Amino acid sequence: MHPILAGMAAYRDELVAIRRDIHAYPELGFEEVRTTGIVADKLRSWGLAVTEGVGLTGVVATLTGRRPGQGAIALRADMDALSIREETGLPHASRIPGTMHACGHDGHTAMLLGAARYLAEHPDFAGEVHFVFQPAEEGRGGAVRMLEDGLFSRFPCDAVYGMHNRPGLPVGQFALRPGPAMAAADFWTVTFHGTGGHGGSTPHLATDTTISAAHFILALQNVIGRDVPAMEPAVVSVGSVNGGSPFSPNVMPSEVVITGTTRTFSDEMQALMRRRMKELAEAHAGAQGCTAEVECHGLGPVLVNDPEHTTVAARAAAALVGEAAVDSAFRPITGGEDFADMLRAKPGSFIFIGNGVAADGSSHALHTPHYDFNDDILTLGASYWVSLVQQELAGV
Fold first, then answer.
1. How confident is the model at residue 69 (pLDDT cuts 50, 70, 90)?
2. How does DSSP assign 124-163, residue by residue?
3. Same domain? 161 vs 200
4. Contact assessment for residue 94 and residue 23, using Cβ atoms and an 8 Å cutoff
5. Strand partners of residue 197
6. How far is residue 337's CA from residue 140's CA, in Å, rounded to a whole number?
7. What is the pLDDT of residue 189?
8. 357 touches 170 (CB < 8 A)
9. Which end of the chain has the least Cβ crowding within 10 Å, N or C?
10. 67 and 84 together in one domain
């Protein structure tokens, strides 16, 4: 066993307890008061310099190595939960109705805490490590909020690294890639306005929002096939359609609201999708005598890993599990991640750690009611962070 893994094993029970405690009391973005209290208290008890309130509810802790050197890196974990009702039935299941850690941020937080404790007790590195505990990753702009609060000016660093668990990837394996690795994500809302009317007696006197909405949804799918180049990946999906009342089937609604998401892998394609969405909504609204409002909320740009730092990250993982267990050419995924904003401010890399696969080949996906972070990877993830620090801050 690698010495880091052997040393980290002593912290396993504590990391499991921390992770399950955070899991039982999940908090949404910018509401992570209890979670940040746990994080800050633990870090201070291990002797780190702690700053709270970075980006509203973020925490940053700094540790200086005992070897000579001026380098500095930042390691980031996210802390927030999701508005999902948990259905795992586990003893540590969420005690907050309608809220759960369905993405594993409880585990991410515990892994980075484990690394902080290990490095505090074994500061055999050169320079500084900043442990960044970020709020509000799930669509509420936590990364941007920390950056606007001076994250990298207050805590200067040469590179920033992130990590996320991946269900379906076996325990003991890692995956990453240089270049674009995760998609730019937009949430959008299109609202069609019309007069509404009586659908039985006087439909000819109404402007029909439902026809505008129906044609818009169909036309939107054609953007992928006819506006996006064939070799450019892009996704557009409708998430909800709301208008009228099931108790008034003879009433034509005066308003129909459609929401959805788009995923792209370049700024150009993100802009194209936004432009075409607006053009199509307005065109199909106008064809029926209606109007349309289009709102796009960007959740984060394309996540682009720096090639040099991705090589360092792969080497740090391979030192623990061997090169064969590190997929360095992982296919890009259309999931979004606001760590991309940090990677636009500093070079770095984002890696996936396997959350496991059941014996029948199945796994509970992220953002689902039956998902749970795998405690068996807590010490491995924490060890990866330590290995990365040793790779990046070896000194001379």
1. confident
2. -SEEEEEEEEE---SSS-HHHHHHHTTHHHHS--SEEEEE
3. no
4. yes
5. 252
6. 11
7. 98
8. yes
9. C
10. yes
CATH number, domain at 257?
3.30.70.360
Q: What is the CATH number of the domain that holds 367?
A: 3.40.630.10
Whether residue 151 sits in one domain with residue 51 = yes
Sole residue written with tokens 């870090």? 43
Q: Out of 300, 335, 354, pick the residue that ends a domain.
A: 300
147 and 218 assigned to the same domain: no
Q: Which of 242, 265, 300 is the last residue of a domain?
A: 300
For residue range 184-221, what is the model confidence (pLDDT) as tens digits?
999 999 999 999 999 999 999 999 999 999 999 999 99
Domain that holds residue 220: 184-300
The first and second tokens of residue 378, run together, are 């807590």
Pick from 55, 53, 56: which is nearest to 40 by CA? 53
Q: pLDDT per residue over 242-292, tens digit each?
A: 999 999 999 999 999 999 999 999 999 999 999 999 999 999 999 999 999
Distance, CA of 89 to CA of 103 (rounded, Å) = 17
What's the pLDDT at 318? Answer: 98
CA distances from 157 to 54, 168, 243, 352 (A): 16, 33, 50, 22
Contact 262, 271 (CB under 8 A): no
Let me know whether 170 and 80 are in one domain: yes
| Residue that has been written with the tokens 């740009």 in this structure | 301
Could you give the CA distance from residue 148 to residue 161 in angstroms, rounded to a whole number? 19
Question: Quick check: 98 pLDDT over 80?
Answer: yes
Answer whether residue 396 shows pLDDT above 60: no
Q: Are residue 40 and residue 127 in the same domain, yes or no?
A: yes
The answer to whether 78 touches 105, Cβ cutoff 8 Å, is yes
| Strands 67-78 vs 126-134: parallel, antiparallel or unpaired | parallel
Count of domains forming the chain: 2
What pLDDT shows up at residue 68?
A: 86
The CA distance from 60 to 132, in Å, is 5
Same domain, 13 and 149: yes
Query: What is the per-residue pLDDT across 360-378, written as a single tens digit (0 to 9) for each?
Result: 999 999 999 999 999 999 9
